[in-house]
Amino acid sequence: MARPDSPAAIRTTCPYCGVGCGVIARPDGQGAVRITGDKDHPANAGRLCSKGSALGETLALDDRLLAPRIGGQDTDWDTALQTVADRFRAVIDTHGPDAVAFYVSGQLLTEDYYVANKLMKGFIGSGNIDTNSRLCMASSVAGHRRAFGTDTVPGLYDDFELADTVVLVGSNLAWCHPVLYQRLAAAKAARPDMTVITVDPRRTATSDLADLHLSIRPGGDVALFNALLVAIADQGAMDADFIAEHVDGFPEALRAARADDVTASGLTAAEIAQFCALWIRSDTVVTLYSQGVNQSSSGTDKVNAILNCHLATGRIGHPGMGPFSITGQPNAMGGREVGGLANMLACHLDIENAQHRAAVQTFWNAPVIAGQPGLKAVEMFKAVGDGRIKAIWILHTNPVVTLPDADAVRAALAGCDFVVVSDVTGRTDTARLAHVLLPATGWGEKDGTVTNSERCISRQRAFLPAPGQARADWAMLAEVGQRMGHAQAFDYAAPAEIFREYAALSGVAGGLGLDFDISGLADCSDADYDALEPFRWPLNGTRSGGRFFGDGRFFTPSGKGRMLPLTSRAPAAVPSADFPLVLNTGRVRDQWHTMTRTAKASRLNAHMAEPYLEIHPQDAQALGLEPATLARVRSPVGQAILRVLVSDKVQPGQVFAPMHWTGETASAGRIDALVAGVTDPVSGQPESKAAICQAEPFKALSYGFGLSVAEPQPDAAYWAKARAKDGWRVELGYDAPVTDWVAQARVLFALPDSAEPVVVSDPARGVHRQAFLEQGRLIAALFIAPQPVAVSRQHLLGLLGQAQGIAVLAGQPGADRPDPGATLCACFDIGVNTLRAAISDQHLTSVEAIGQALRAGTNCGSCKPELRALLQAATPRMAAE
Ligand SMILES: Nc1nc2c(c(=O)[nH]1)N[C@H]1C(S)=C(S)[C@@H](COP(=O)(O)OP(=O)(O)OC[C@H]3O[C@@H](n4cnc5c(=O)[nH]c(N)nc54)[C@H](O)[C@@H]3O)O[C@H]1N2
Ligand SMILES: Nc1nc2c(c(=O)[nH]1)N[C@H]1C(S)=C(S)[C@@H](COP(=O)(O)OP(=O)(O)OC[C@H]3O[C@@H](n4cnc5c(=O)[nH]c(N)nc54)[C@H](O)[C@@H]3O)O[C@H]1N2
Ligand code: SF4
Ligand SMILES: [Mo]
Known about the structure:
With 881 residues, the chain is of the alpha/beta class. Helix 3 links the parallel strand 6 (100-104) and strand 7 (129-131). Helix 2 (77-95) crosses helix 19, helix 3 packs parallel to helix 19 and helix 16 (377-385) crosses helix 18.
């Protein structure tokens, strides 16, 4: 469906990762939007990664939810919102305010978040609003608050470029924060003596850049940083003056570090010594950390183990140095500021502090205020499951896929009295369980602000009209607030009004001595808000936007930073004979979470088209898992079927699987079905990176690969489908015999009777190949074999919709046309075989040379780490030539 006309170039912000890149959107009025990087944005200076540059391809309206629905039937807003207000009110009247909950998201805009938090904590009077940031940033928040007294990220992006040593702990920056990775790679290229260290159980596209990679044992980070603290003390690298004046807890922290068991890191003494020497060598060291740290049952301790080392050396708050917790979602930071977590109030105020509670209640003129923290995400869904929570409103997140113990979450929602979901699409595992489904405006259609990893607040601006009846999330929340009897408190006409109120409240927080204060904008006009340039907080009469803590002043009662005594703990689940493998999970380069947006851009599906299990060759062999076959993976709580990817990038005894696949995109790819709901005792963040599992061959009688112009409707035991350029692709695994493959294909692809089959079949060998033509054009094809189907997928997908004959069934390009292989450069659609051939034929030796020869890597640059890896793999062969 085409979009109506809309205005010219609009400056906005990317809706994906926490780098927070500035984007310029130019709608052409014909439905297409041209996307480029904003050269004037401080985060990216014009760069975009593969996901950002494909944003224009995700805006089509197919799949969008365009009207409110109750019980699956379209309805009007009045009915839908009155139903929500009445049902929530009825539950609260009968069972009290803690019987309802909101589950929100670090992808909401600050203005949406502000209204949700105000309604729950100040007007419903419960702390039961929590956010998916609980799965993401909670351990960093808790660690910051323990050490600094507030949730403050001290440093800036510039610090990476200024540092002599950058340590990346549990971060796959190359794939997850690609533009920041590119800034780092460029700084290293300009200053080759800069040292990059990666700490991660597996080797990744990021570790390819590193001078030193430490394959830490899962959960071993506290032991490593305790060892560093001991080395700092033993080598006299502490900053004694800074400690004396500005730090509490050094002796206790050091004593605990000395008593800790270094071997829990799984690293050799030589590796640890080398790491400590590089870290200690120069003052300008940045330790960046992400989900390998946060998503752990000792996540908060891991954070504090890192902060301890920076506090002990005074390496904090100055150019080129400091700990840096990088945020995942575009507004993870904003959600923390606005009080989206169940244990916070707005503006970093503390729900457990009576003075803070009174200040917020007075400011809101609220009838009540939550008196204690609400339930944290994992607990919240347990309470839904056992009936303590009877009504829940889920906004901008997909918990049936992304919360641990995901099958239990699905069962909890299926049994809940009243589930409301706001989303841009009804096609999610969570939306399918909603009693009331509310259509939200999406990126490009809504207005507000987000805060990135370096505390930079930027505007997201609308450049397209709201489709159908879609409404902004803040507007639905405010209307429900009004209909629940709080007409005045939720009488907002536009996001600017909400922002001004929020900025004014932050002045109250600043007055109470807190860090987050943007009261300088409390009086901004609508026009100022529209024109707001990216800025870093704080912003009030006296302070603006720099680093924190360089002056040694912290937000604890004593004004000092706190070091904590820490002892390493292994992950909660211990591998056993039944579940011998440690299951690590995370992200791939070109998909965003549950793929509701990125998978609309076909080129983003070409990089990795299926859910997979990365497993070490030794384990694969011992378990009988052949490359490219399928594995059934079981854990104590659930199971999945995944494609086997044999790779020595993971260590023996460990496997890795991506988090992106859902019930919409695969038969059994929801990886959180395997992850138990174990959490960190301080932060409540789940241990998403160290579950346990076993894997065995999934005995497929037949494997299949299919393509079609229409969306396939598979019912095989294993399937995974994705959009391709002019249609769809589907991978299949059948565990029962099929007698008539032509009939099977007709159902799978919902083919019209007029579709003409062209068939080559060898039943004795179990090989069946069939193409379906309409007026001579290829509309579908299905390739079946007893082993994983070996055809060139990129070649076949390129034939969809074109005039074809029986030659299609070869499944490979003719001898005159080489097979491009799986796509590596998504921007220019360049396959791995093309690249390998060019590297060897043209003797290319650098990423730049590849760019000149083929253009690969010259647009967004997200594939550069993989190009570098291809070059490295090719070098020995060429040297031997
Ligand atoms: N392409 C893409 N980019 C994204 C996202 C996306 O969905 N897709 N999501 C965004 C979001 S919300 C987030 S939170 C970020 C996440 O960004 P990252 O945290 O960088 O990504 P992950 O892949 O989740 O995990 C990082 C690494 O932690 C490692 N790890 C596992 N266990 C341990 C351990 O015990 N110790 C250490 N040191 N490392 C360990 C894993 O092997 C993995 O390589 O990415 C953001 N960017
Ligand atoms: N095993 C495992 N699990 C994990 C992780 C992991 O590493 N491993 N990572 C965790 C982390 S760090 C995160 S951040 C979470 C992410 O997990 P989720 O937040 O659950 O994943 P998303 O796919 O981003 O869900 C966003 C939803 O919002 C919808 N949406 C898009 N735009 C709008 C809008 O404007 N308004 C509304 N109302 N809806 C909209 C999308 O269609 C989608 O359904 O997953 C967590 N789960
Ligand atoms: S790095 Fe990529 S995904 Fe992240 S904000 Fe920038 S363009 Fe968006
Ligand atoms: Mo995240």
